[in-house]
Hints:
- This protein has five helices and 13 strands.
- It is α+β, with helices and mostly antiparallel strands and 186 residues long.
- The chain has one domain (2-171).
- The strands form two sheets. Strands 1-13-2-6-7-8-9 form a seven-stranded antiparallel beta sheet. Strands 4-5-3-12-11-10 form a six-stranded antiparallel beta sheet, with no helix packed on it.
- Strand 4 and strand 5 form a beta hairpin.
- The radius of gyration is 20 Å and the shape is elongated.
Amino acid sequence: MKHATLLLALLGCAELLISGCAHSVPFVHQMRADYELGPDQLKQIQYYVSGQITLRRELTDQETSVTSGHELKVINDKRIEEVVVLPGTPGIAVDSNSDFIRISFEEGGHLNFGSNPDHRDRNGGKYFLGAKWQPRHGGLARGELKYQDKTYEVIIHGGEVYLLVDMKKVSSFKKESRVVGGRKLD
């Protein structure tokens, strides 16, 4: 099973490089401000996730199946629904405000990515995956979030996960401006 997950991750990375998104850059708050990207413009940009996101929740005895497209696993004799978003997975913006963007990677679900105004100087203004995070243990970050109206444990392997964009698309939202020549007295 580990080999299949690794293979899928490698294929996702290869697809990202082949698809022309190799020039992806972190989506940062300053970029949003510089290009005056409002809700409508944010919905016209293709987003990608920088790292793997794994969502898990234990199924109740009343639940007989998992959501379409999700995987059912048995871990420590517990039935677990698992959702994996691989690095480079494309997503679209479905909602936003001044500090966060909701990104959908599949029909019916979205994840919140935010740029905390209190920490923008420290993290460059990147839009990180939002969750109720627990203290980090080794290389794993764990937390909790809502997805498709259900509570999941979120697991991040390695570093933090944030949004990426193709800078060519973002820069197409250039501000309209002109330089005036001035006026002289006659």
